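Workshop exercise sheet. Pairs work together: one partner reads the sequence aloud, the other fills in the structure field after running the prediction. Swap roles for the next sheet.
Pair: D.N. / O.F.
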Amino acid sequence: MASNPQRRAALVDAGVEVLAREGARGLTFRAVDAEAGVPVGTASNYFTGRDDLLRQIDTRLHERLAPDPEVMAELLKSPRDRSLITAFMHDLMARAQRDRTGYLGLLEMRLEATRRPELRASYTKTVRADFEYGMEFHRAAGLPGGDETVTILYVAMLGLILEHLTLPGVLDGVLPGVTVPNDLVERIVHTIVPSI
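Structure field:
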């Protein structure tokens, strides 16, 4: 197994691109090699198989899409109220828009997990850990609302991200005077998060 960390990272990122563009069925070592611009057979030297590549893509996607610690630290200087949660949700939406390929890769991972029980177990564990971290962060930060607020906010934002990244015109004009996604983020937080 080859051990060049930079080459491995480039191959994993190429895998994200292929996954987002072609879906899981198009994720082959040959396609990853072509996307990375490396000789045919390179990816097979870095991953034990397709499942190994998918696991590493999962890890990489969570790194790519994670909040910037400096942005979070700056936001946490604000009062612990609904406006702070709104700022967090705007940051989440901005990250989704900035790395559209990464979020589409996450969606493809979800679809592939529905077909492969071994991936479903691993992916469910990863996503659940992220979700539980979000609930713990919310509690520790002293933000308004509790676990129910975080859960409903999670589902609403996931739906907004899904619609906006895959069928962006679906929500346009549904609510007169409400822009998508910015005003809709505001409406979601205002509807779900209690004021204090």
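Discussion prompt: The first helix runs from residue 5 to 22. What would you look at next?
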